């Protein structure tokens, strides 16, 4: 009996390998009760042995039936079906879900877990891009879960409804629902497997909604959740692939490669959902560095999951000097994908269509980005839209007008701590200034971009800087530098308020001050913010200069004096 008690204790403490060992030993002595079999199955699944865990879930289901606990048998059947679907066995999964439906229909009283049956229906609609059907199914799951006291189905329904609303373009409402679902997870109301599903789905949806702040916050939370559990495999790979994406954006490319490879390792150990992101993110870094063969190999590995590795593969073709192939690949991907993922490809669509010579198609993508900006106020989305607008205006022969959105995009990328994209803006600014006859500004912008590209190891971007700049237009049509500068309006509304609130420090520098005041080392701060230690050091140097300080202790004192600690 002590072995069984030890298994239960290990399960409660999230020591999954210990729970598997103790429960398995107890099961050898005498068949485990149904509830313990279910916990053994969960522990096995979380250590990465999904197929084995599903077989044990099936045993638990049969044991529940033998005990005449039909509501628990129905719940167990639903999770058996869902796990099989996640393992890539939809036919077997559908059979188990049908069994669960039959059990629920035969019950004389309402089943507490009936809401779970609407979750796979909603997921199928979501994957097909049918937001309305998904919303209806997930609403039913959430309503039934709340009405009958099942926290798992209530939280999963809330999550799915939030995802459906983002798919439908209702960003604010959708993101609020994601936060609500996460509350149930963080207060400990949710079972381990649904909790991991919610964490990963929330982060993915935040990226689809261009909400970088939420993506950061929940990725840090998922990181801690995974670390708090002994040798967790399930969801750990997905955590690493999300870390890789953030590292890439923030210019910590070596760290991004490490996280992507760790994601792949977890994927091969059982977290299959990390295969795509692990390889795609590694491919992105190889592409940006100019390692085109390695990038292609990674994208093809990602494609084996059934999802198109876009826009990365199309941008690779563009970098290889094959714009027509890039255009064809991206058009095919965007034509057959749901709106949420399609939106993430719009900026790449502009770049590729312009390179392929189809300005009307690029203009349509720019207009779609602008419409999105009118619906949702996310700095990342605005930066992409403004950068794309500038590229189109320059292509159309209006470099003076292009200066306005491009400078805004550059400012936003700096605020997002995205050095590569900020440098791309400066590279384009160099071309605009040269076209307007301002050779000195063109030289300064080009040198600033070159320094960032060289530090990152972005070989293709560096090579692009060496391309001949456009000749200056006729002096009668070229605005002077002063006149061009006057076309950039002062920040208004949200931008002005953000600038006023920031004081002498940027948002990221303020965040670094808070973390320094908490006693964190540069290495820990880098891990918290998904940036490199070198970037942390650069932020600290800027903080010292702006505030006239010379030590971390002085920064800590400043934080307490100004309410930042």
Describe this structure in words.
- With 565 residues, the protein is an all-alpha fold.
- Among the domains are: 2-232, Tetratricopeptide repeat domain (Serine Threonine Protein Phosphatase 5, Tetratricopeptide repeat); 233-309, Tetratricopeptide repeat domain (Serine Threonine Protein Phosphatase 5, Tetratricopeptide repeat, Alpha Horseshoe); 504-561, Orthogonal Bundle (Arc Repressor Mutant, subunit A).
- Helix content is 76%, strand content 0%.
- The protein is built from 32 helices and no strands.
- It has helices spanning 2-12, 16-29, 34-46, 50-66, 70-86, 90-106, 118-127, 131-148, 151-167, 171-186, 192-208, 212-227, 236-249, 253-268, 275-289, 292-303, 312-319, 323-335, 339-343, 346-356, 359-375, 379-395, 399-415, 419-435, 439-456, 459-465, 481-486, 493-502, 507-517, 522-529, 533-547, 552-561.
- The chain is globular, with a radius of gyration of 26 Å.
- The model is unreliable at 471-502 (pLDDT under 50).
Provide key terms for this protein.
Serine Threonine Protein Phosphatase 5, Tetratricopeptide repeat, Arc Repressor Mutant, subunit A, 565 residues, 32 helices, mainly alpha
Quickly give the structural class: mainly alpha
How many helices? The count is 32
Strand content: under 5%
CATH fold-level assignment of the domain at 2-232: Serine Threonine Protein Phosphatase 5, Tetratricopeptide repeat
> How does CATH name the architecture of the domain at 2-232?
Alpha Horseshoe
- Unreliable residue stretches: 471-502
